[in-house]
Amino acid sequence: MSDPVTRRKRGPQALAARNDQALIEAARHVFTTQGFDAPVSAVAEHAGVGMGSLYRRYRTKEELLQRLCVDSMERVAAAAQGGLAHEDPWQGLAHYIQQCVAFGFGILAPLAGAIDVTPEMQQANQRAQHLADELTARAHRAGVLRTDVTTMDISLLIGQFSRTTPAPPGRAEEEIRSRLLAIALDGLKAHNTGPLPGKPSSVQHYQTLWDARRTQP
User: Fold this and answer.
1) Residue pair 70/123 in contact by the 8 Å Cβ criterion
2) In 193-207, which positions are buried (b, 16+ CB within 10 angstroms) versus exposed (e)?
3) Rounded to the nearest 5 degrees, what angle is found at the Cα of 8, between the Cα atoms of 42 and 105?
4) What does DSSP assign to residue 111?
């Protein structure tokens, strides 16, 4: 999925945006494969730029992680918009889930409470949440999504599938993930009428996790 901001720019602005996006993609790869303790030098190396170039754009590692969070929420919003563009409510919801899993939306969960939440992060999150809610509500109105499934349930499901796991010999990880995701998607359909165990997760609970660092003395 290409960056929606980059697509709107031309000339020098587009070049700068592409360079910045290369850093973000490098950061996503490094932190996914090496963990969030990985040094920013590994990000610069993966992006093919010098440390000076990286620090001119991001003064600290936290700033880079904050931008990575914003980029992820922008991708979630783009995926939701793509889903809403589908005439079929179920296909639109499935598109959204598949796109979010594909770029690994859930990998940033460990950052909750570890970095400061910026206004830009809040704004991007609110927009993505609004579009995801709209997508879920449309599926509910069409009667294709089981009535007891919430947007938060779907977000947590995406998070589970964003985690990488070793594949058995001879099996590609992507093949296994696609198969299990198809099973999970079928479980979301309205024809499954058995009650879900427990209560639905609260959006406020997870928002509190991200805001935890603000309340620390």
Assistant:
1) no
2) eeeeeeeeeeeeebe
3) 45
4) G
Top pLDDT among 85 and 50 is at 85
Quickly list H helices, 86-191: 89-102, 119-141, 151-162, 173-188
Query: Taking CA 96 as the corner, what is the angle to CA 181 and CA 18, rounded to the nearest 5 degrees?
Result: 115
Facing residues of 189 across strands? Answer: 145
Least confident of 66-80, 113-127, 155-169: 155-169
Q: Is 26 exposed, middle or buried (0-12, 13-18, 19+ CB in 10 A)?
A: buried
Res. 165: pLDDT tops 90 = no
Instruction: Name which of 72, 75, 19 is nearest 48 in CA terms.
Output: 19
Q: Are 79 and 129 in contact (CB under 8 A)?
A: no
Shortest CA distance to 136 belongs to which of 124, 151, 125?
Answer: 151
Dist. CA 43–CA 55, nearest whole Å: 11
